[in-house]
Amino acid sequence: MKNIPIPSREEDFTADPAELFFDLSFVFAFSRLVFHLVHHPTLEGFGEFVLLFSLIWMAWSNFTWSANAVAGNSRFVRAIFLVATAISLPMGASLQAPFGEGSIVFAVTISAILVLPIVTGATLLVDDEVQASNRRYLVFTLLGVVLVLAGGFTDDGWQTGFWIAAIAWLIFNTLDGGGGDWLVRPGHFAERHGLIVIVALGEVIVAIGAPAAAALSEGGGFDGSLVAAMTASGVLVGTLWWSYFDRPLPALEHRHGELAEATERSRFARDVYTYSHYLIVGAILVAAAALEEIMLHPGDPLPSAFRWMLFLGISGYLVGVFVAIIRAYSSLAVERLVAVAALAALIGLSGSLDGLWLLIAVDVLLVIILAIEHYRVEIAHKLISTSAKPSPGDSSN
Predict the structure, then answer these.
(1) Is CATH 1.10.10 the right assignment for the domain spanning 185-386?
(2) Which segments in the chain show pLDDT lower than 50?
(3) Cα distance between residue 26 and residue 90, in whole Å
């Protein structure tokens, strides 16, 4: 193990291809979660989605923290990522029936993905303080894994109860771990979470295109409403991309890099990335389920359950970014709250509106809100720049 490079605390790096390959395996899992929502558009189905996504997010997040602390380009670490990628395939497949025939497979595979990265850290980390934090986190995670496995081998209410308890315990573990000493590299954290957002947005693209492809294979062809709905959905995905990658992501990375103390960096990473991005990525998948339903019946009024999925998906995404910005800069992205309120009103009044026209209305709303936010931020930057320039008569210049 002596030849494995452990970067210094000050050294940042980009994500290794093995990490990107690992992320791609979650495309399958995300698609099964969207499938679950589309076919179970009830409060119970939504609760099951939250439960399953929470466990998956915890597993993915553990790998991100581990790879951030240990250089991911060694053969040993790459091998760990490839093993986890292989395990994630049956994990994704088990989501077809996670509360039935697939429960044991899901529990075993998600437990393995939860533990593997922390064991990797325990094996490779050489910093004594970081190693102590990692060992404590590992012990607490193992207790959570016991609850996950117990749920996989039980039925009905017991299964749900064990998994809710596991999530609660794992969340407590992240709260406890936030006060520890960790190796945290801002650039890598920003890149990894940006990539998983891209993966989730890619699932939206699949949800948009799959119904159209099915219509063609059945000889139905493209009609005008379907083409228009696909185009409007593409505009929606573009606005979501823009609202995260244009300013927030680089701004969050910049703020993270300004923090000097290890504890401050770790708490920032936990709050802004592990917590806020949980909401951002989960919300994208909820929106994907609503968009898939619109693609199936673009000329019909969108059923109430899917209208509120569309609201929860888009508003959850906006709120996730809003919370991250507050945590980073103590600044309110007011336009995003206005968008949430306007979207709630639109959804509440759109019961008889065809899915296509509802989608177009949402696009118009988001484009207007983002334009207003853009100009407000631009004006604020100009004012700051102007005030920072010395006056012509300033003798100190």
Answers:
(1) no
(2) 1-4, 6, 9, 395-397
(3) 11
